[in-house]
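Reviewer 2 asked us to include a model.

Predict the structure of this chain.
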Amino acid sequence: MNILDKIVADKRKEVDLKKSLIPISQLETSVLMERTTASLAAALRKSNTGIIAEHKRRSPSKSVINQNLNVQDVAKGYADAGVCGMSVLTDGKYFGGSLDDLVLARASVDIPLLRKEFIIDEYQIMEAKAYGADVILLIAAILSREEIKTLSESAKSLGLEVLLEVHNEEELQKSIMPSLDMLGVNNRNLKTFEVSLDTSKTLSEQIPDDFVKVSESGISTIGAIQELKEFGYQGFLIGENFMKTDDPGASAKIFIDGLKK
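Predicted model (structure tokens):
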């Protein structure tokens, strides 16, 4: 069983438990259900930099990245730096995140927020909306085409955008459908954790122009972004690079200012 299979098995148990504790009817009473969402896809399309900055405490591949910062400060720092959006990891067991992180980020900033999670059930999409997300992540590696369709359409019905993440051609081909807004290519192989920007470059031609192209993982230099822009990428998800510093917002600002030169 690889790490991804393990995470999904644990996630199924977690979601079943949550459903028994907090029914959907309770999520529907959240004041954030009425909120008009902000478009990450639109922000990326009109941006020259395209940075989606991530809040991430730890990961299975790197263990602890940064446990010392509070999410409100990180969110404000990112917003002040001029990011297009912020990704908030809400998985507890493997990444040290929570839905509280999402709602605290939402209370702190107006920029588009992506709920970064292993989504396998429509219940989690309702949670995303109830806790203030604008965008959800769907991971092709853990979902069938039918599940991608059901989950993405469910998100759209709540006014949420969908970023669909792929790792290879097979995942990309099964995933392309009108209910997606952005297609993300993860340069990290989730089974081996090896990273290569060639993954984004190779798959770029096969992503239709209707979708905003996002490159994820292993992006740590301005040069890498300039290279990926040549392949039509408009969004760049960066987490570790900023989070491993004492002030992720300041790091993001230096990076974004460098990109504008």
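Residues 7 and 94 are 8 Å apart (CA to CA). Strands lie at 51-55, 58-59, 63-64, 85-89, 113-116, 135-139, 161-166, 182-186, 212-216, 235-238. We have added this to the supplementary material.
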